[in-house]
Hints:
The chain is mainly beta. 0% of the residues lie in helices and 54% in strands. It contains no helices and 59 strands. Strands 21-22-23-24-59 form a five-stranded antiparallel sheet, with no helix packed on it. The protein has a four-stranded antiparallel sheet with strand order 1-2-3-4, with no helix packed on it. It has a four-stranded antiparallel sheet with strand order 5-6-7-8, with no helix packed on it. A hairpin with a 2-residue loop joins strand 9 and strand 10 (113-117).
Amino acid sequence: xxxxxxxxxxxxxxxxxxxxxxxxxxxxxxxxxxxxxxxxxxxxxxxxxxxxxxxxxxxxxxxxxxxxxxxxxxxxxxxxxxxxxxxxxxxxxxxxxxxxxxxxxxxxxxxxxxxxxxxxxxxxxxxxxxxxxxxxxxxxxxxxxxxxxxxxxxxxxxxxxxxxxxxxxxxxxxxxxxxxxxxxxxxxxxxxxxxxxxxxxxxxxxxxxxxxxxxxxxxxxxxxxxxxxxxxxxxxxxxxxxxxxxxxxxxxxxxxxxxxxxxxxxxxxxxxxxxxxxxxxxxxxxxxxxxxxxxxxxxxxxxxxxxxxxxxxxxxxxxxxxxxxxxxxxxxxxxxxxxxxxxxxxxxxxxxxxxxxxxxxxxxxxxxxxxxxxxxxxxxxxxxxxxxxxxxxxxxxxxxxxxxxxxxxxxxxxxxxxxxxxxxxxxxxxxxxxxxxxxxxxxxxxxxxxxxxxxxxxxxxxxxxxxxxxxxxxxxxxxxxxxxxxxxxxxxxxxxxxxxxxxxxxxxxxxxxxxxxxxxxxxxxxxxxxxxxxxxxxxxxxxxxxxxxxxxxxxxxxxxxxxxxxxxxxxxxxxxxxxxxxxxxxxxxxxxxxxxxxxxxxxxxxxxxxxxxxxxxxxxxxxxxxxxxxxxxxxxxxxxxxxxxx
Length: 646
């Protein structure tokens, strides 16, 4: 049997097996064949468990709102839960403070005590491991930032990291004082591990630091005395983990680039000897068995892949997954939506019913490629359809009418017209005003293609940086945004730079609407005027990167990685409402209208969920009223692992 819900954290427990936590607050024990042996009970209002630790026969977990759990390792029966709202020191709260969502992993366990930052990020709980008595509520070791990781592998020198790139050294003994600090990153340090072979600590980076910030990142090595010793910058996206083999002769690191890097740690110099690619998704966690050195890789879609110590494939769990990454309306019919999914592109038709609009799957195109990150409607030479970009570095075109590009046939459904391999990981795709050209933002620059046959027309680079978003302006000029936030406009004829602006924050999505550009990412939702810069911004109360947004009906509605939706008045910028504790992670957004003109919000989520909300606008306030949910079918991923020796 497989877990029913997506796994978000894994820990290998010596002599037991693989322990995994899921998005609904449960923990599962898996056997050597990655089958479920036992599971914990369902938790009312269960939330994703990002913090997971095991000690002395107990499993300790922390959910995204700061609730702390304790299960028996032998049975996985739930024994204790500390509520994030009530377990606090009121004297340390700021006015009207409530628990805030955060995907914090940090749980420190030392000499029978659990140290963990609570739902109130300025506070830290010290809990007795064996009785779960709260021994102390104290100011957070990391100040205002949640503790992201705690490393107690050194017998006396402990290390904790936070979400602001700080690594602190001290000890959980006595007053749990961590006086020594070094700044290693401009973002999260997700993992810190002690290298017993060379008496040093390894830490991950999310953004990079200094001149490499939002350009290149990887792992940083710090001496036991707290001084930066070396770094290996191999990534263009978040690095989620670094872990050692039992003998510390190898180190394993990887993250959102979807690549696993294996280091030779026999000598002190940092050296990657092997890279494993072809996973189904970004990599979010890794654990190594102390029993036999087997490596377990968790992909962000919930798939678990077992490798041997050298990175050779052993088995995969075969987790059935689905996600809706992007929703774009057909230009011919706004009631027809193209949804980018884990398996390809699903065509959804919006119809009116007595209970309000409903969604119905009209067709499903399974590509056989990696998951489709973005989709863009295209119409040229009388044919309509879409372009898609995939995780395995491809861009493809499909005709919706069932033709194959060779005639005017009336086939049974969408048919792939062409596909082209890209030079690097793609991020966004856009079609030009005339439908003849397409622009794909990749880590190797922006690639322009002919939409008729996929022929590459040109590649545009900006300072040699990864381009994370690109779009055409109404006059055909190209607007590019680099990972570190540099915006350039390239002339449609000769690609000369017409405008350059550094807005300083990394992008996620970019689109043109009513002559203006809208950008999401770090720093919220931004409205841009070419030649002028950022003229409006919406960000209030969103706890993490803003992934997506829609603008219309006098509103701006944004989604964040913090499992949130927020609404703002477009004209005044006034905050209208925050919607948390959603049933799933929102990824794709689309504004719809009923037959009577009532506005609706369609939200595509991580589990293939399409949630439809009625937008109830009131003076100074907005409500999202759930109308219906629809789930797309889930299917296991197809793996194509490849080993690259250095």
